[in-house]
Design goal:
Elements (H helix, E strand, L loop, with lengths): L18 H10 L8 E3 L6 H8 L5 E4 L12 E2 L12 E6 L11 H8 L2 H6 L6 H12 E12 L9 H10 E10 L11 E8 L8 E6 L7 H8 L7 E6 L13 H12 L24 H4 E5 L6 H4 L8 H4 L2 E5 L13 E4 L7 H7 L1 H8 L2 H4 L20 H4 L5 E5 L1 E3 L9 E3 L3 E3 L3 E6 L7 H8 L2 H10 L1 E3 L2 E3 L2 H5 L11 H20 L2 H14 L2
Parallel strand pairs: 1-2, 1-4, 2-3, 4-5, 6-8, 11-16
Antiparallel strand pairs: 5-7, 6-7, 8-9, 10-17, 11-12, 13-15, 13-17, 14-19, 18-19
Helix pairs in contact: 1-2, 1-7, 5-6, 8-17, 12-13, 16-19, 19-20
Length: 531
């Protein structure tokens, strides 16, 4: 069972596998009814129930929660983590508990502290489920099958690298099903995978069948059958990929896409060498230039209640006009362009309500009807007056005479293949739904050049697989943007300088004229940089 400690859950934070998914997983197994089967965290027993109905008899199961382990006589009410198990199994199947270390009960932390496998392979930055996966592999017989449902993010986090390397050294994947944000577990939003792993010393060249389901809706029998039968349609993507590699993130993409991303990074290298895909920047610094090397990045300011501060053509005094700011919201952003600017009240310097009422009467009148809502805003550990914005993060960065690039701080990509990086003039502010990008002082590349690269398909594909992606939503906070590979210009190379100037000019003209021909020529020039 996928688990995560949350309020109003028991100490194991249980989320139970729906019968539809459990049945789908059992159908992935290629075993006979006499095979020895293990369920290491049986929960309410959905896998056991279905296995018995399908004629399987040789089943072993563990469940640490005594309230759940009584349903079937043969379920052992003990921790799988500490259980002394000597036999081997043809199939191990289930939904392992997935609990972050900080959310573990003290008794579970104590158990792990004395566990040989945990101490050998993991640490307090790892998740509880890692031990379930690794121990299960140890308990498989040769050619045995491991079929688990888990969240997806252990495929690419730095702290799971020891688990991933162990899996590659001891077997291979045959199938991975990625359900993205599909609501599988009640009251839990998590991007989920089902994987089938084979324990073996060979067959490392076998391809992985990968199926991705993109639609965020409840699963039905028909949908599951299409996924199981690998029937591609608008909601289901089917692809094959080579086995993963050690010390790399595991990206659910075909070989062509992975090759494209490596080539993208290669052209952004700080120096030419063979180390093209160093992905764990907390462990070792990337070899390629990134946006963060050339730009300052800031998340937008927080009003706490935008509708209270938005002005809609109200009559203002000259003094009031001087105390407004121009804002562009995420909904008004398109690739390269924005649609609308909105004026906002900005009166954080006003010291008292009396001052607000006397010097800013139109502000005062507008804000009165919103006072109950304004006073319920999060206070950030200080007293915030109702006429103030609650969090002016990065205000000094935004309050400058420099042009900037805006991008929505979150972007759903299930039905599109572009992001919305937008050129914005000086003195226009982002709110919390927008992140802003500024050239650093020593950056020679133009802002239009940077914008063109960010809107190029190479950046889209790289972020789709390497960015901070939760389900179908890509996050654009400071760190993910800063990590994007950047094609720096060699200013001693006349051809590169000429390309930079052409790209900058074409980008600026496209923003002005919105001509498809200009965009086509712009992308052609970018392609020449990557040849």
């Amino acid at each position: 069972m996928i688990t995560e400690k949350i309020i109003n859950k028991n100490k194991y934070g249980q989320y139970f596998t729906p019968e539809l998914i459990a049945d789908f997983m059992i159908e992935l197994a290629n075993i006979d009814t006499e095979s020895k089967i293990l369920e290491p965290s049986s929960g309410k027993g959905v896998f056991i129930k279905l296995l018995i109905e399908k004629g399987f008899k040789n089943i072993t199961a563990y469940e640490i929660d005594s309230e759940l382990s009584e349903k079937f006589d043969f379920v052992r009410n003990e921790s799988f983590v500490s259980a002394n198990i000597s036999e081997k199994f043809k199939l191990i199947i289930g939904n392992p508990p997935y609990i972050r270390w900080k959310n573990l009960e003290e008794e579970l932390k104590t158990e792990l502290a004395t566990n040989h496998l945990w101490n050998k392979y993991f640490n307090s930055l790892c998740d509880y489920s890692y031990l379930f996966i690794l121990k299960s592999i140890k308990l498989l017989e040769d050619k045995g099958q491991l079929i688990f449902i888990t969240p997806e993010y252990w495929l690419n986090t730095m702290h799971s690298i020891t688990l991933r390397n162990y899996m590659l050294r001891n077997g291979y994947f045959s199938e991975i099903y990625h359900f993205n944000e599909t609501p599988i577990f009640e009251k839990a939003t998590v991007s989920t995978i089902v994987f089938k792993y084979i324990k073996a010393s060979g067959n490392k060249n076998q391809k992985i069948d990968i199926v991705k389901y993109y639609k965020n809706q409840q699963l039905t029998n028909d949908i599951i059958q299409n996924i199981k039968n690998k029937k591609a349609n608008n909601d289901i993507e089917v692809l094959t990929a080579s086995q993963f590699k050690e010390n790399e993130r595991w990206i659910l993409a075909d070989d062509e896409k992975i090759s494209e991303m490596k080539q993208f990074e290669e052209h952004c290298l700080k120096q030419q060498n063979n180390n093209l895909l160093l992905l764990f920047e907390n462990d070792k610094k990337n070899n390629f230039y990134t946006i963060g090397d050339f730009c300052n990045i800031g998340n937008g300011m927080v009003s706490g209640l935008d509708k209270a501060f938005q002005l809609n053509g109200e009559t203002l005094t000259e003094y009031e006009k001087q105390n407004t700011i121009k804002v562009i919201k995420a909904k008004n952003l398109q690739p390269y362009f924005y649609d609308e600017i909105t004026s906002y009240i900005f009166a954080n310097h006003i010291e008292s309500e009396e001052n607000l009422k006397s010097d800013f009467p139109n502000f005062y009148n507008r804000l009165q009807k919103f006072i109950p809502q304004l006073e319920k805003r999060y206070q950030y550990n200080r007293k915030i007056n109702y006429w103030e914005w609650v969090f002016l993060r990065n205000f000094n960065l935004f309050n400058s005479d420099k042009a900037r690039i805006f991008v929505p701080c979150k972007e759903r990509i299930s039905n599109k293949n572009y992001f919305r990086f937008v050129y914005v003039e000086a003195n226009i502010f982002p709110t919390q739904d927008v992140t802003a990008i500024f050239k650093k002082e020593n950056t020679k590349e133009s802002l239009h050049y940077i914008l063109a690269l960010l809107n190029n398909y190479r950046t889209f594909n790289w972020l789709k697989y390497n960015g901070v992606v939760k389900g179908n939503i890509v996050e654009f906070s400071e760190k993910p943007i800063a990590s994007i590979p950047f094609r720096a210009i060699n200013w001693s190379d006349k051809n590169e300088v000429a390309l930079h100037n052409d790209i900058s000019e074409l980008c600026e003209n496209y923003i002005t004229k919105n001509s498809p021909e200009l965009l086509q020529e712009l992308n052609y020039k970018i392609d020449k940089l990557f040849q």
